[in-house]
């Protein structure tokens, strides 16, 4: 579904991506791991066209992501769960969830958009009484669920998860991981997740890719991660200070 072919991207003298090659099969869950500042978020932005690669190509379902025939239709294929929730404080929960359903190519009548929002909230374990609350009235875990409901509101083919468990306690993180796994499987969606949380990796990944030094150091099934044979992967997944990945002191 998503194919990165020799993707390069620099910001001034900072060469972030140095030839990324990675294929994400349709209907699978790929988790990309790597240290802070290694370019994981840049990969997401390149797929969506928010950042243009300096060199290389990104194909989505066989078509060039850099030049879609209809950009609105292209973006309508994606859902996104943002790291910080990114909810609109001035809008009630249901309008946050239905945001893209009330405008653009996916526009629905207001009543229908609300019904869909309430149903998606139910899918992530939130009752209809939450719909008219504002984000500030919700706990961090509830806000994350609202963000997940918004990500799936338009039944996207591809869902991006940016550090989905950041800021959550271990129990709520486990709940979110289970929801992500269930929803991706249920929808048959292709998922691309970036995270530092190894518990999340093991819970939601079919395949794992390690981004380091601007390239994919290793990729394979999550079941093979512990026996990858790559020193970078081994150091990262076990959180060791000593190894080929230098810690910033």
Tags for this entry?
alpha/beta; Rossmann fold; 6-stranded mixed beta sheet; 4-stranded antiparallel beta sheet; 8 helices; 24% strand; globular
CATH superfamily: P-loop containing nucleotide triphosphate hydrolases
Radius of gyration computed on alpha carbons: 18 Å
| Uncertain runs | none
What number of domains?
1
Oligomer: single chain
Please report the distance between the alpha carbons of the first and last residues: 39 Å
Q: How many separate helices?
A: 8
Give your account of this protein's structure.
The protein is of the alpha/beta class and 249 residues long. It has one domain (28-38, 70-238): Rossmann fold (3-Layer(aba) Sandwich). Helix content is 31%, strand content 24%. The protein has eight helices and ten strands. The protein has helices at 40-48, 71-75, 93-97, 110-123, 140-151, 170-187, 198-204, 231-238, and strands spanning 2-11, 14-24, 29-33, 55-60, 63-64, 78-81, 158-162, 190-194, 207-212, 215-221. The strands form two sheets. The chain has a six-stranded mixed β-sheet with strand order 6-7-8-3-9-10, with helices on both faces. It has a four-stranded antiparallel β-sheet with strand order 2-1-4-5, with helices on one face. A hairpin with a 2-residue loop joins β9 and β10. α5 (140-151) packs parallel to α6. The chain is globular, with a radius of gyration of 18 Å. The model has no long low-confidence stretch (mean pLDDT 92).
